[in-house]
Hints:
Layout: E1 8-17, E2 22-28, E3 39-42, E4 45-53, E5 64-70, H1 72-77, E6 88-93, E7 112-122, E8 125-131, E9 145-148, E10 151-158, E11 162-167, H2 169-174, E12 185-190, H3 192-202
Antiparallel strand pairs: 1-2, 1-6, 2-5, 3-4, 3-6, 4-5, 7-8, 7-12, 8-11, 9-10, 9-12, 10-11
Amino acid sequence: xxxxxxxxxxxxxxxxxxPAGFRIVxxxxxxxxxxxGESIAVNGVCLTVVQTEPRREEVAGRSGTFYADVSPETARxxxxxxxxxxxxxxxxRSMRADTRVGxxxxxxxxxxxxxxxxIRHEADFHWVTVAFPPALAPLFVRKGSVxxxxxxLTVAGLEAERLTVQIVPFTWEHTNLSxxxxxxxxxxxxxxIGKYVVRALEVGxxxxxxxxxxxxxx
Length: 218
């Protein structure tokens, strides 16, 4: 579980083919704090750290790296399959139980990818419009939450197949959004509360388990 507050950015240094899927190698200052088996969100996709390497002392200022495996299904559903060496990615470690939830509950389970349709600058702020698949339309509401490449954001504008979010200067400067252009692929995760509401409507008259609260006459 994550909360959509990006800790830092990382840089993809390599994508290594494995028998199924591929192994992503990311350079980041977080590498020294990661442990094997730990969960980390890469552009909003929950992955497992399978290897870490410390900073190479002979190269001044170089961060360490971590490795994570990406399955064929994850590569298909998310935008990780479109990454290349040199791409900047958002990183967030799993949420601690004793921390504040500054964003919203983000599972790291991407629902679909979207494409950046427009970027509009307004003083120090930025408006980003994302086109999404029609199937996701029931899961978005104005002023509701959405995770875009793992970033917890608020839906400021909503159309049939597009949503708009406003990016504050800090988020623009400390996430990968400032590296993206129109047409770029981003990972979208809808608010989990909305998913449960839609699911409840899908199953129709399901009312849940009934408890017999009558007193026992005996």
